[in-house]
Specification:
Strand order of the largest sheet: 2-3-1-4
Oligomer: single chain
CATH architecture of one domain: 2-Layer Sandwich
Radius of gyration: 26 Å
Strand content: 25-35%
Number of helices: 3
Largest sheet: 4 strands, antiparallel
Number of strands: 4
Helix content: 25-40%
């Protein structure tokens, strides 16, 4: 059987319990077709880059699947019909990753630092505090052609 990583985005107005119910529904489809679902990671409610069906956020979920291609196609078909699923993507992989995914590692690193997306040890400066350095002698200014007072 082939190995897949499957990520789907669920609508923002669902509760976490409803998202979990969707995961269980899709797990049932895969197991009924002779496959299995390994790791399931809920990445939580995240902002979308652009609006999808009037949603600005979505619940992201990752599933590691070991199943025949027919099972994955059936899950994708069901998700395409569902109004609760905004987008989905399945990637065939050689082997499933051990441990947590990169998205969960980022979250753990942030919680260890105790910040939300800080900039490390960079000093806080306001907009007008930039040092532009010495610009040197730029020479005399010449008027641009085609403008009033310019060369003809």
């Amino acid at each position: 059987m082939a190995l897949y990583e499957h990520v789907f985005l669920a609508r923002q107005d669902l509760s976490q319990q409803q998202v979990d119910a969707l995961v269980e529904h899709y797990k049932g489809i895969i197991t009924a077709a002779g496959g299995s679902v390994g790791r399931v990671e809920n990445w939580g409610l995240k902002s979308l880059t652009y609006r999808i069906n009037k949603n600005r956020k979505a619940y992201y979920t990752l599933m590691d699947i070991t199943a025949p291609s027919a099972a994955v196609k059936e899950v994708e078909r069901q998700q395409g019909l569902s109004e609760d699923v905004l987008r989905f993507m399945t990637i065939k992989v050689e082997a499933h990753e051990e441990g947590v995914s990169a998205m969960m590692q980022k979250r753990e690193e942030r919680s260890e630092r105790g910040e939300r997306g800080g900039f490390g040890d960079r000093p806080q400066r306001s907009f007008g505090d930039r040092d532009r350095g010495d610009r040197g002698d730029r020479g005399p200014r010449r008027p641009r052609e085609g403008f009033e007072g310019g060369a003809e």
